[in-house]
Design brief:
MutS, DNA mismatch repair protein, domain I; DNA-binding; 5-stranded antiparallel sheet; single chain; 5-stranded mixed sheet; Alpha-Beta Plaits; 4 domains; 38% helix; 403 residues; DNA polymerase, domain 1; alpha+beta
Length: 403
DNA sequence: TCTGGGGTCCTTTTCCTT
DNA sequence: TCTGAAGGAAAAGGACCC
C-alpha cells in the first residue's frame, strides 16, 4: 500500500535567476525586473546581436534612475532587496530607494522557454505534473518508483539535481500528503531546499504558522480572522466550524476548517482547459472618455485584436465578451455580454465589447482598459455545436409561436 | 508620486421565467 | 392583470494567486 505523496516545486527567484544566466556580469549587483513597457526595450542596447550577451559592459545597462513612466517591479535580486525595493513596488518609488539598480524589462518569452525546459525534465521523471504558472508545479509522487523513499526526499533530490544540471537553476521542493501542505512545505527551506511533511507534523510544524501561510488566505481573510483573535493556523483549527461558516459563508468556512486541519483531497490535474482570455493595458496617463475618445478607441480596438489573435492562435472561441475599466481612483468596473454564438473574430469582439462599454460609467478618468472573452470552447468542439443560424426559421416559429 | 497583467474561483446581485 | 415565490442564468464585484 502506498501513501499519498504530493510534491510542490517552486523555482527560486525564477525571473531574476534566468536573467542572471543570460547576463552573468550582473551577478551581485542590484537588479530590478519590471515595467515591461516599450520604453525600457527602446532604452536597452540588448537587442544588439553582434556580440555575446555576456560581453555587454555593466555600464551599458539602463538604470532605474533614468526610467520615467508607470509600472511596478515584478521581481528584484537579493542585492536590490537590501535597499528596500521589492515586488509590486512602483518603479518611481524604487528609483528613489535604489537609483543605481539595473532595470531589465520582463522577458516572458525567455521565462517560458526555461519553464518548458524544467517542466519536461520533471515529466520525464514523474509524469503526473500539474502546472501552476511559469515557475511552480505540483507533482504526484505516489506511484512513481522511489517516490515513497524517505517520505519523497530521494525523488525530490533527483529532480532538483536533474533540473540544475540541465538549466543551472535551483528550486525548492516540499513533499506532503496533499497539495495544501506540500505548498507550505516548499516554503520551509528556501532556496534550493527540500522539506518533508508527514501527517504527524501538522501540530508541531503547521499549527504555529500564521494563517496567511495557507494558500488561499489573502490579506482580507487574514484581517477578518485577526479581528476575531485568530492569528495562527492552530487557533483557526480550534475555531467552531459552524461559527466559521456563519462568518465566512458555508463554502469558505468549511474550507478554512479543513485547511487548518491539513485536509485537502484535490487531485493533481495534468491538463485543463482555459476559462477565459483577456488583454488589458494601463495608459501612460489617465484618459478622459470624451476628450481622449480617439486615443481610447484605438487602444480598445487593439485590445480586441490582441484577444482575437490569442484565441485563434490557441484554437479557442468564446461567447461572453466583457470590458474592464480601472478609474484614476483605482475603482474597478466590469461589464459583459453573452452572445448567442461563439467567436474569435476581432470585429465581433469589438462590437460586443463596445456594447458592454456603453453600459459602464465613464465620468471618471480612466487608468486602464481591458477586454475579456470568456465561456471558452475549443474551436473544434464549437464547430460541432448546432448554431442558431442553422435552425430553420419555421422551427423557430414552432418553438415561439408568439413571436 | 504610488500601485502591472493574466488568470481562477466564489459570492452577491440582478434579471428573466414559470 | 397583478403579485409573490422560487429557481436559474447572467452579470458584477471581489479576493486571491503567480
Amino acid at each position: 500500500m502506498s501513501l499519498r505523496r504530493i510534491a510542490h516545486l517552486d523555482m527560486d527567484a525564477f525571473y531574476a535567476s534566468v536573467e542572471l544566466l543570460r547576463y552573468p556580469q550582473l551577478k551581485g549587483l542590484p537588479v530590478v525586473i519590471g515595467g515591461g513597457r516599450r520604453k525600457i526595450d527602446e532604452d536597452l542596447m540588448l537587442g544588439d546581436t553582434s556580440r555575446a550577451l555576456h560581453d555587454i559592459a555593466v555600464s551599458e545597462f539602463p538604470l532605474l534612475r533614468d526610467y520615467t513612466g508607470r509600472g511596478v517591479i515584478t521581481t528584484a535580486t537579493y542585492a536590490a532587496r537590501q535597499f528596500g525595493v521589492g515586488s509590486a513596488m512602483g518603479l518611481m518609488k524604487a528609483a528613489k530607494l535604489c537609483p543605481q539598480a539595473v532595470l531589465l524589462p520582463v522577458d516572458f518569452a525567455q521565462y517560458r522557454h526555461y519553464s518548458q525546459r524544467f517542466k519536461s525534465i520533471i515529466t520525464d521523471i514523474a509524469p503526473l505534473m500539474e502546472n501552476r504558472g511559469v515557475d511552480e508545479v505540483y507533482i504526484d509522487f505516489t506511484e512513481v518508483p522511489g517516490g515513497q523513499r524517505e517520505g519523497g526526499r530521494v525523488l525530490a533530490r533527483l529532480i532538483q539535481k536533474a533540473i540544475f544540471e540541465d538549466t543551472g537553476l535551483t528550486c525548492s521542493v516540499g513533499v506532503a500528503p496533499n497539495k495544501l501542505l506540500a505548498k507550505m512545505a516548499s516554503e520551509f527551506n528556501k532556496p534550493n531546499g527540500i522539506s518533508i511533511v508527514l501527517d504527524e507534523d501538522l501540530q508541531p510544524l503547521i499549527w504555529p504558522l500564521a494563517c496567511r501561510k495557507i494558500n488561499g488566505i489573502g490579506p482580507k481573510a487574514d484581517e477578518k480572522l485577526q479581528k476575531h483573535g485568530i492569528q495562527t493556523i492552530g487557533q483557526l483549527a480550534q475555531a467552531e466550524p459552524l461559527w466559521l461558516k456563519e462568518v465566512f459563508g458555508s463554502k469558505t468556512g468549511a474550507w478554512l476548517h479543513d485547511a487548518a486541519w491539513g485536509r485537502d483531497s484535490r487531485p493533481v490535474v495534468t491538463e485543463s482547459e482555459p476559462i477565459s482570455m483577456s488583454r488589458e493595458t494601463t495608459f501612460e496617463r489617465d484618459l478622459d472618455a470624451v476628450r481622449d475618445r480617439a486615443e481610447l478607441g484605438t487602444i480598445f480596438t487593439r485590445l480586441c485584436e490582441q484577444v482575437a489573435a490569442d484565441l485563434q492562435r490557441k484554437g479557442y472561441v468564446g461567447k461572453t465578451i466583457g470590458v474592464k475599466l480601472r478609474y484614476a481612483d483605482f475603482q474597478i468596473a466590469t461589464r459583459d455580454h453573452t452572445l448567442d454564438h461563439y467567436t474569435a473574430q476581432a470585429q465581433e469582439i469589438r462590437q460586443a465589447a463596445g456594447q458592454s462599454l456603453k453600459r459602464a460609467p465613464l465620468q471618471k478618468r480612466l487608468r486602464l482598459l481591458g477586454v475579456r472573452v470568456g465561456s471558452l470552447l475549443p474551436a473544434e468542439q464549437a464547430k460541432l455545436l448546432p448554431s442558431d443560424k442553422e435552425i430553420p426559421d419555421d422551427r423557430n416559429a414552432l418553438l415561439f409561436p408568439d413571436d
